[in-house]
């Protein structure tokens, strides 16, 4: 295979070799059902609990507060549905933001159809929601506020701790989708004061199909899947033992060296952003310049459409992502880019690059040159660019 | 998800650019939809033959590929022949398009028709019914094959 430069780590990551090695015995030798009483079962049960300790330790929780799921989306669905149901006696109002992942947004939209009221808070030009905006939206009937810790598209890190304080003062529950944040910034549930938190292993070199939901002790969690005693009767189904083991191993590795990793990724990211903005005209950075995930760079290029950019970059060996409609499978571009105030045509022309530790400064330079060339090539085909140039000449 | 032909026409698009002395220019689509196609033609007033044709497109890979193929298919053809071009023919010439991208072939057909409508207008002739179309699917009454 030709050399590829993978810079789409916000989409998913490669399973780390240590993680894969840790998982393999649970396919091959210790394949017992954790609910079985004989040795293979007991051993499988034991490693699940070890993984639970690892996940709990990584986010400052206790083992009773960790529930394994099949994905981050499942954790989001479970948290939101369970919280609003448990709090139904208090009211039916939910607050979230316009820039959440669809796992949160679509769940809220579905709950609206089921009779709940939802406030979708707007964000500022950086994709940030302020604690005061949350406070202003709180009602007596508000039962749940869900705000992501870090945005998957533009990397903006939300002031979750301050928001959680506001929410608790008003007697509501707070959930955060921390899927993009784990392993990138320090995450401690006690420090953040969140009631619930969602995460998934494949974003930090764990296996796909592994996720977890943190639920603060004392909070009643409604069963999500019925039919068995797994996850203390809350999520039936034979446990994904290799996946859970992999999640435990991956989160331990990913949270072991965050300051060093963040410093390295910030250097790559800032170099990339600086070079792109210097060499490509009509480019703008999306998201907050500093309060953003260390590996995330999201830049919009005027007059072009993102899918073409991705296809050309793919031919040059680069895997990245875009907020264009064509890559979303709908006619509308990214809801996040529209929420931060981009025009449709600007949102269509966005490129998200998400670095990880295996990326290098040489790769940054290669990507910058590839992006510069490709943007120029697409602009030369673009009637919007032609129109712009003619307007400039006419002045 | 794209055929080799689509990738070929996307990565080496034919007939890109403007024609300085074009006598027929059509533009369809809008930035909201994420696709804009502009087609330039030089049509021989005596013979009605499209002697030169070029395009500029803002849009996805399929939008660029269908623009390229549509210009190839109408080059050297008469107006009547060009008006007979269907979106299905453009898609078939590209060995097919993914279902969600069929609207790009519609846009290409519309861009050709829109350029020809512009030609009639410039000559002060009546524009045949149904030639003008916004190119944004759903807003137009005449049918396309999906």
From TrEMBL, chain A:
Q: Which residues are [2Fe-2S] cluster-binding?
A: 326
Purpose of the protein: Master enzyme that delivers sulfur to a number of partners involved in Fe-S cluster assembly, tRNA modification or cofactor biosynthesis. Catalyzes the removal of elemental sulfur atoms from cysteine to produce alanine. Functions as a sulfur delivery protein for Fe-S cluster synthesis onto IscU, an Fe-S scaffold assembly protein, as well as other S acceptor proteins.
As given in the record, the signal peptide range reads none
Q: What class of enzyme is it?
A: transferase
Principal location class: cytoplasm
Q: In which pathway does it act?
A: Cofactor biosynthesis; iron-sulfur cluster biosynthesis
- Catalytic activity annotation: (sulfur carrier)-H + L-cysteine = (sulfur carrier)-SH + L-alanine
Per the UniProt entry, what are the Gene Ontology biological process annotations, in alphabetical order? Answer: [2Fe-2S] cluster assembly; amino acid metabolic process
Q: Per its record, how is this protein called by name?
A: Cysteine desulfurase IscS
Give the multimer and partner information. Answer: Homodimer. Forms a heterotetramer with IscU, interacts with other sulfur acceptors.
Q: Which residues of this protein are catalytic? A: 326
In this chain, where does the modification N6-(pyridoxal phosphate)lysine occur? 203
List its EC numbers: 2.8.1.7
Named cofactor requirement(s): pyridoxal 5'-phosphate
Task: Please report the stretch or stretches of sequence annotated as the Aminotransferase class V domain.
Answer: 5-366
Q: Which UniProt keywords apply?
A: 2Fe-2S, Cytoplasm, Iron, Iron-sulfur, Metal-binding, Pyridoxal phosphate, Transferase
Keyword Transferase among record annotations:
yes
Gene Ontology MF terms in the entry: 2 iron, 2 sulfur cluster binding; cysteine desulfurase activity; metal ion binding; pyridoxal phosphate binding
Which compartments is it annotated to reside in? Answer: Cytoplasm
Of the GO CC terms on this record, one is:
L-cysteine desulfurase complex
According to its UniProt record, which protein family does this protein belong to? Belongs to the class-V pyridoxal-phosphate-dependent aminotransferase family. NifS/IscS subfamily.
Chain residues that bind pyridoxal 5'-phosphate = 72-73, 152, 180, 200-202, 238
UniProtKB/TrEMBL annotation, chain B:
Q: Which Gene3D superfamilies match?
A: 3.90.1010.10
Q: Which residues form the NIF system FeS cluster assembly NifU N-terminal domain?
A: 1-124
The Gene Ontology biological process terms listed for this entry are: iron-sulfur cluster assembly
Any one GO molecular-function label of the UniProt entry? iron ion binding
Question: Where on the tree of life does the source sit, at the highest rank?
Answer: Bacteria
Q: Supply the source organism's classification.
A: Bacteria, Bacillati, Bacillota, Clostridia, Eubacteriales
Q: What is this protein called?
A: Fe-S cluster assembly scaffold protein NifU
InterPro entries per the UniProt record, alphabetical: NIF_FeS_clus_asmbl_NifU-like, NIF_FeS_clus_asmbl_NifU_N
């Amino acid at each position: 295979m030709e050399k590829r430069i993978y810079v789409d780590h916000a989409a998913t990551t490669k399973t780390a070799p240590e993680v894969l090695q840790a998982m393999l015995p649970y396919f091959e030798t210790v394949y017992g059902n954790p609910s079985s009483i004989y040795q293979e079962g007991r051993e499988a049960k034991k490693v699940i609990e070890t993984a639970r300790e690892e996940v709990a330790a990584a986010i400052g929780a206790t083992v009773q507060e960790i529930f394994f799921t099949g994905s981050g989306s499942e954790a989001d669905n479970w948290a939101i549905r369970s919280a609003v149901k448990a709090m139904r006696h208090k009211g039916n109002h939910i607050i979230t933001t316009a820039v959440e992942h669809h796992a949160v947004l679509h769940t809220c939209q579905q709950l609206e159809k089921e009779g709940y009221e939802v406030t979708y808070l707007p964000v500022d030009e950086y994709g940030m929601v302020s604690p005061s905006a949350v406070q202003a939206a709180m009602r007596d009937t508000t039962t749940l506020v869900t705000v992501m810790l870090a945005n998957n598209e533009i990397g903006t890190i939300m002031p979750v701790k301050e928001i959680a304080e506001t929410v608790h003062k008003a007697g509501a529950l707070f959930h955060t989708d921390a899927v993009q944040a784990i392993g990138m910034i320090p995450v401690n549930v006690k420090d953040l004061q969140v009631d619930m938190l969602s995460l998934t292993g494949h974003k930090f070199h764990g296996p796909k199909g592994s996720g977890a939901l943190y639920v603060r002790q004392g909070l009643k969690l409604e069963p999500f899947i019925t039919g068995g005693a797994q996850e203390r009767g809350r999520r039936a189904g034979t446990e994904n033992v290799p996946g859970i083991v992999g999640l435990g191993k991956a989160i331990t590795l990913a949270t072991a060296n965050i300051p060093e990793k963040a410093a390295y990724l910030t250097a790559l990211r800032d170099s990339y952003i600086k070079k792109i903005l210097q060499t490509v005209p009509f480019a703008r950075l999306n998201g907050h310049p500093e309060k953003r995930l260390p590996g995330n760079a999201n830049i919009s290029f005027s007059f072009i459409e993102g899918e073409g950019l991705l296809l050309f970059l793919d031919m040059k060996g680069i895997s990245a992502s875009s907020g264009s409609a064509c890559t979303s499978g709908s006619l509308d571009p990214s809801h996040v880019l529209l929420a931060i105030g981009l025009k449709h045509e600007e949102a269509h022309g966005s490129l998200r690059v998400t670095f990880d530790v295996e990326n290098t400064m040489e790769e940054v330079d290669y990507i910058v040159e590839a992006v510069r060339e490709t943007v120029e090539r697409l602009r030369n085909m673009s009637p919007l660019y032609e129109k712009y140039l003619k307007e400039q000449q006419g002045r | 998800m794209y055929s080799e032909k689509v990738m070929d026409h996307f990565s080496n698009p034919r007939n890109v650019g403007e024609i300085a002395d074009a006598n027929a220019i059509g533009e369809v689509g809008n930035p909201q939809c994420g696709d804009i196609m502009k087609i330039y033609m030089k049509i021989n007033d005596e013979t009605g033959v499209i002697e030169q044709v070029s395009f500029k497109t803002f849009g996805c890979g399929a939008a660029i590929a269908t623009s390229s193929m549509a210009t190839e298919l109408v080059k050297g053809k008469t107006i009547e022949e060009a008006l007979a071009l269907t979106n299905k023919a453009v898609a078939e010439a590209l060995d097919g398009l993914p279902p969600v991208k069929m609207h790009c072939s519609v846009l290409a057909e519309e861009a050709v028709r829109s350029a020809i409508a512009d030609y009639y207008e410039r000559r002060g002739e009546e524009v045949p019914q149904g030639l003008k179309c916004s190119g944004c699917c759903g807003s137009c009454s005449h049918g396309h094959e999906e």
